[in-house]
Amino acid sequence: MASALILGASGDIGTAVAKRQAAEGWSLYLHYNQHEATAVALASELSKQYPRQDFIPVQADLTDLDAPAKLAGNLFALDAVVVASGMTYYELFADTNLQHMSDLMRVHLLGPMALLKLVQAKLARSGQGRIVLIGSVYGQQGSAMEVTYSTVKAAQSGFARAYAQEVASLGITVNVVAPGAIDTKMNASFGAAALDAVRETIPAGRLGTPSDIAYAVKTLLDPEAGYINGQTIYVTGGWQA
């Protein structure tokens, strides 16, 4: 039975990924930081639906330098890591501060990189290890008011391209799924009018859903996806891609 760690499993995209992979027969480590109740409820829901699989909530604050080692120490068999943890600060770059920049870099990039270094041997055991990072179209296009966020999302793609070359011989793939405008609680904070304006610019005529992203992740986690490596796959409905 395959096992995956989903970083940010309490978020909308992380939850959608967890539900889809559970339906595919995976056991899951469900990472959260502050939203313990959400992660525990998700584990309980999935355990009832799939009693032969394991669903284990694990807590870690990825802005903490000790978090990667803490997480790695709680993981046993591991076939995949999905990095769906995320946060942003919506501000002019001139108004940002070093703490905000540090938080974004640790949550999206440095924390996951440090963790992957520690679990590489576990991922290599099956010869079909999978790593998928949830990036952003802004890693390609950039976004005013989210300069640091855009920077770390671009860096995720750079990391995937380079790391994939090191671990391909171990059977490990490293890819990025880069969403466009997705209908999540975080994006809902921009308000209906702003989202309607964005929707009008999307060729597909709608916002994406967390399920759209989970489908792309599922595809990359499949054992038959071993020749897709070092790629950034844009799931945007044609928007800004």
TrEMBL record:
Gene3D superfamilies with a match to the protein in the record: NAD(P)-binding Rossmann-like Domain (3.40.50.720)
TM stretches of this protein: none
Family: Belongs to the short-chain dehydrogenases/reductases (SDR) family.
Cited PANTHER family: 3-OXOACYL-(ACYL-CARRIER-PROTEIN) REDUCTASE, 3-OXOACYL-[ACYL-CARRIER-PROTEIN] REDUCTASE FABG
Protein's recorded name: SDR family oxidoreductase
